[in-house]
């Protein structure tokens, strides 16, 4: 049976769960908003389905829900944060104002977060920055579950890459995509629902191509999207998300002693650019010109558009949720 829940109610319920399972108030509020935003926007691979993974990561002591991030002001355009084994979004919140002010002063800034955990989508991190007029790029590496092109075993994570930029007269342009053939959360959802994966998504534990999501999860691995091209982008994500931040590569951490933990212990890189420094007509007008040309060419769906449409619907009508999922969230909030 399906029902609905308002965005505010869902945030409140998720906050209770995070507090109950070991975060402080700041982390509970940031993570609850982040997870509820994903559910609100129909980004289901990182919505409430992830709550069990957050709870297990916290209860096994894999991630510190009360960590205090340490912000380091390194150079006019560079800041770093040691997330102290806490969540990357909490570290970002702590360093955000500094990174934005550096970007406004110098035209560009880099925010390098390490010793951090990120289990969510990246668009919630970059979209608000574009709403403030900045171009924002973010990468995060994850856990070794993706085979590099021409390789035989997983080295890369699903390694998403997100971009957000202001658009004159509209919501920011945002894309946010895993560099693996699909996000791991979608493989888990397909396994639960008994759906086959699209061709060329993954291999089984013997390295044979498979469209069985369970075979990918049981010792198999994903492939990168677009063959060698996606593999190069995924390699870049490892370099930016880990080598440049001081975090772990996706193959470098061992969480085997923390059964059920799902939060990759890696790093996150955010690059901010102030488009007001650019030559020519203003960037957001130029962005508008490009989007108009794409639409004139027949493009009917822009990246981010599906989410924006679902967001408008769910803010008005409530977020659909099954009675079973709602009951398990309520149980987690008290147990
Ligand atoms: P999708 O393939 O569903 O979508 C990728 C992007 O393409 C989105 O911006 C989407 O917009 C857009 N898009 C999708 N279909 C079309 C279309 N037909 N025309 C135009 N644009 C389109 O996402 P992924 O499965 O690759 O990734 C899902 C999420 O998983 C991401 O948010 C990512 O950050 C997250 N992730 C997080 C990880 C972590 O470790 N924290 C690891 C891996 C992934 P729209 O959103 O509007 O559909």
From TrEMBL:
Q: Note the InterPro entries from the entry.
A: Mal/L-sulf/L-lact_DH-like_ah, Mal/L-sulf/L-lact_DH-like_NADP, Mal/L-sulfo/L-lacto_DH-like_sf, Malate/L-lactate_DH-like
Keyword RNA-binding in record: no
UniProtKB keywords: Oxidoreductase
Q: Which family does it belong to?
A: Belongs to the LDH2/MDH2 oxidoreductase family.
Would you tell me the protein name for this molecule?
Answer: Ldh family oxidoreductase
- Where does this protein come from, organism-wise? Pelagibacterium flavum
